[in-house]
Amino acid sequence: MTPYHLTPDALSPAECDTLIALCQAGPLHDAGLVRATTAPHIRRAELSWLDEIPAAAWVMDRMIVLVAAANREAFGFDLTEFAESPQVARYGAEREGHFDWHSDIGAGALAGKRKLTIVVQLSDPATYGGGTLELRPDSSVREAPRDRGTAVVFPSFILHRVTPVTTGTRWSLTLWSHGPAFR
Q1: Is residue 26 part of a domain?
Q2: 19 found inside a domain
């Protein structure tokens, strides 16, 4: 059993290029952790928040449909909203960009309501080394597919990481759907 739901071709290569270009044109912010803390030994990346880019509004419309279908087909969670801005992350080899093992559900007001995590691979996998999205739902580690434009949807409580990027740059889109606390 896979711990995730896949949507191949969630974004076309041209849409991936457009999204990357929009994020490159604006400011990229150093990626932190919750409550504006930074820990480069845990996470080293730059972020662009799509709510700050009006020309990227189409992305959220697309993701709402995608998440509804994935939830219906694979999870059946009680989802009520998207309470946080989608983010595009840049993991560059020059900084050994990575994000160590973590789950996306947490103690914060919004993080505590995260139900599903959605990650869309924006980069062509031939343009970078490392940077693998790995999931650890149990004692086994599973590698998510690296196909460009593919969306990986998984419960936010699953441990996951992005391994260090060794060459090139990995770009990905991440967002969360929210709902009442798990019972």
Answers
A1: yes
A2: yes
Which of 59, 101, 103, 102 is CA-nearest to residue 82? 59
User: Domain containing 68 — which CATH number?
Assistant: 2.60.120.620
pTM for the structure as a whole: 0.94
Q: 10 Å Cβ neighbour count for 71?
A: 19
What is the total count of domains within the chain?
1
Q: Which of 26-30, 113-117, 154-158, 172-176 has the lowest mean pLDDT?
A: 26-30
Structure token digits, residue 87: 């983010």
* Rounded distance between C-alpha atoms, residue 173 and residue 156, angstroms: 15
In a domain, 3, yes or no: no
Distance of CA 171 to the CA centre of its chain: 10
CB 23 within 8 Å of CB 53: yes
